[in-house]
Amino acid sequence: MKLLNLVRCCSKSRIYLLLGVTGIFNILLGSFFIFKCSGIFEAVLPFISILIGFILICLFFWHLRKITKIYAPKVSSKNAEGDGNGISKDAKIVVIGGGTGLSTMLRGLKEYSSNLTAIVTVADDGGGSGILRQDLGMLPPGDIRNCILALADTEPVMEKLLQYRFTDGMLKGQSFGNLFLAAMNGISENFEEAVKKMSDVLAVTGRVLPVTLQDIKLCAELEDGYIVKGESKIGEHNSFHKGKIKSVYLEPLLIKPCQEAIDAILDADMIVLGPGSLYTSIIPNLLVPGVVDAIKKSKAIKVYVCNVMTQPGETEDYTVWEHIRAIEKHSYKGLVEYCIVNSAPIPDDLKKKYQEEGAAAVVIDSDVLERHGIKVLYDDFVCINNNYIRHDTKKLAKVIMDLWESKCYCGRNMEKVV
């Protein structure tokens, strides 16, 4: 059946199939006449016919092997290895967040699993996304675009094109990828369908889903009661009203979640929060009704990937536990079972640069985390990109998958004992 599908897919395959059939005919014809021959000279032509037949069949099988490689589903070598215990490495992983951190992590995870679902916040109202949101009345495409490109199996030139930002004219600062998604939104019934169509075009591994299809606004209440409205203003609120964030909430209050996102959470083997901006990328997803309930009901392993550095305007002087406490305050106590943190030192020149901007390395308060029953996974995740500190995507993905495998192994052994 697979052979028929491959042959149907292009005319070149049909030509090679014809060559293969001709080769079989040549061998049969040559074999028939070679037994009728009375001398060696009479056998020359039948022998040549058999030889040509073998060559034609070899050409057919060479082409068959080639197109099978092209059209076969891509399986990471890590997935194909197996572990001898019957543990499937193609885990159903749901990642929740937004911003650069989420897309960075997805690039590493797609090498281990094709069952990835990224649930992305749609509260962004700044930059090019904010302009399209205001002008076209669509949901902000920026974070969605980054996640799609992270999971896409596309040529470097195509990725460069979709990440290109115009430098002049009315489109200055606008990303071509945002415009592409905006155009797709224009020919689709809704934003969710537009995201799926763009994912199909770019051969995305897994799924990218907006947490809701409604137009929402993120608001923050500071400790002194002052209200900051708009995602883009929350991170820079210290420039016009200093103070620590007490809590965040969404407007309007009645928001319907994306049902596919809820189903993905309930069916997940592992749920990963972050990395990314705590109050503007991670927590906004938890504020959409139905999301926290689904996480609580899910039997998945719950993991939080803490940022390497604090963020001015959001998490100044926050420890790892204070990040988790903010998450639990907006969801439920005990949501985070495992926390992944960076244990490597920050280079002095970058440390100074970040200090000048009001940021510092997040302090790991291990004793507090242990008291709250949170298991901590340490490693060197520092990766410097364009003079900014990011998570090392490969190391982060490996730690996440090692945790998944260890939990699977323990679970399988428990089943054997029972």
Structure description:
With 418 residues, the protein is of the alpha/beta class. The protein has 3 domains: 2-71; 80-121 and 255-417, 3-Layer(aba) Sandwich (Rossmann fold), CATH 3.40.50; 139-203, no CATH class. 49% of the residues lie in helices and 14% in strands. It has helices spanning 2-8, 11-34, 44-71, 77-81, 99-109, 127-136, 142-151, 156-163, 176-186, 191-201, 231-234, 259-266, 278-286, 291-297, 320-329, 348-356, 366-371, 393-417, and strands spanning 93-97, 116-120, 207-210, 217-222, 227-229, 245-251, 270-273, 301-305, 338-342, 375-379, 382-385, 388-391. Strand 8 (301-305), helix 15 (320-329) and strand 9 (338-342) form a beta-alpha-beta unit. Helix 5 (99-109) runs parallel beside helix 7, helix 5 crosses helix 18 (393-417) and helix 12 (259-266) runs parallel beside helix 14. The longest helix is centred in the N-terminal third of the chain and has 28 residues, at 44-71. The two termini are 42 Å apart.
Helix/strand structural class? alpha/beta
Record field, number of beta strands: 12
The tally of helices reads 18
Name of the CATH architecture of the largest domain: 3-Layer(aba) Sandwich
**Top CATH class of the largest domain:** Alpha Beta
Strand percentage: 5-15%
CATH superfamily of the largest domain, called what?
A: CofD-like domains
Under CATH, the topology of the largest domain can be stated as Rossmann fold
Q: Overall mean pLDDT score?
A: 86
